[in-house]
């Protein structure tokens, strides 16, 4: 994507990315750019290939062809832990809580990717190690406050409400100090109030310098909070650009609403963007 001299290059760029499973094309010749410090929505019906894209970007899968570029670096063949170390973190559609761990301990677990620990110091609990552990607890508490999670930090994570567990998962991902945060269906199972609160958190993270790429079935949330978006169906890109412009595309309308799509369907969704 060519821009003016004043525009920053995208933080993430996919070019010609394909991935097949047993002859089925989950992703086919996919290309899009994610602008820096923005909120990018990846939309599409069930089975469109969206989660496969996140698995490719985060290194859990390797593309059959094409390139994935993160901040000028080709990560197409990089291992997931190396991708995490250079600044990409993610959450999952299905919540992944560690059994028995407290709210604070969940976030501390995320901090270990950045923390350098001496085996001898850990075994003997040397002063440096004790200081590092105190520091981890302080940072974890700050991250919980950052995402607006006011629950008892000593409570078991699995006792939190669904919305608070989503916030906790984001705090744990932020503990790795990502420049790009991938969110897989962050509002799944949330009511409208919880979804709005999550959207406000996304805006706050963007203002703090984090770029966000989210998969989201909640089209109204994408329209309200994402500056740019791409729409997929059957592994292929149908449209890319402003979310409201994507929804005006004939192929997108058919993918979401069927062949009987009409202007009223589109206007009903675009209206919240104007609030």
Kindly list the characteristics that best describe this protein:
38% helix, 11 helices, four-stranded antiparallel β-sheet, alpha/beta, 275 residues, single chain, 10 strands, Rossmann fold
The gyration radius over C-alpha positions equals 20 Å
User: Fraction of residues in helices?
Assistant: 25-40%
Assign the CATH superfamily of the largest domain: P-loop containing nucleotide triphosphate hydrolases
Order of helices and strands: EEEHEEHEHHHHEHEHEEHHH
Give me the CATH architecture of the largest domain, please.
3-Layer(aba) Sandwich
Task: Characterize the structure shown.
This protein is an alpha/beta fold and 275 residues long. 38% of the residues lie in helices and 21% in strands. It has helices spanning 50-57, 80-85, 103-111, 119-124, 127-146, 162-174, 192-207, 219-225, 243-246, 250-257, 263-270; strands at residues 12-21, 24-34, 39-43, 65-70, 73-74, 88-90, 180-184, 211-215, 228-233, 236-241. A 6-stranded mixed β-sheet has the order 6-7-8-3-9-10, with helices on both faces. The model is unreliable at 1-5 and 118-124 (pLDDT under 50).
List the helices and strands and how they pair.
Blueprint: E1 12-21, E2 24-34, E3 39-43, H1 50-57, E4 65-70, E5 73-74, H2 80-85, E6 88-90, H3 103-111, H4 119-124, H5 127-146, H6 162-174, E7 180-184, H7 192-207, E8 211-215, H8 219-225, E9 228-233, E10 236-241, H9 243-246, H10 250-257, H11 263-270
Parallel strand pairs: 3-8, 3-9, 6-7, 7-8
Antiparallel strand pairs: 1-2, 1-4, 4-5, 9-10
Helix pairs in contact: 3-5, 3-6, 5-6
